[in-house]
Specification:
alpha+beta, Glutaredoxin, four-stranded mixed β-sheet, 4 helices, about 20% strand
Length: about 80
């Protein structure tokens, strides 16, 4: 399942999100650095309707930010979403 994460270089929540995903077995995360490419920030905001990073997609599903990812994991929904084909 492809993982896409909009992020910046200095973002503790991005680091936490990546760490949680790796704990759950994710080996590859496509990172889009919106601090390096301002056009990607616009794309992220239009796509997610949010301004903060990280913004995480698992496949076509927009999970949200780190807090959303952690809540999904706590509710038992992260691993099934990662394992869905």
């Amino acid at each position: 399942m492809p993982i896409l994460m909009y992020c910046t270089a200095i973002c503790p929540f991005c680091v936490r999100a990546e760490h949680l995903l790796k704990q759950r077995g994710v080996t590859e995360i496509e990172k889009i650095r919106i601090d390096l490419d301002p056009s990607q920030r616009e794309i992220m905001m239009n796509r997610t309707q949010r301004r903060t990073v990280p913004q995480i997609y698992i496949g076509d599903t927009h999970v949200g930010g780190y807090d959303d990812l952690a809540a999904l994991d706590q509710a038992g929904g992260l691993i099934p979403l990662l394992n869905a084909s």
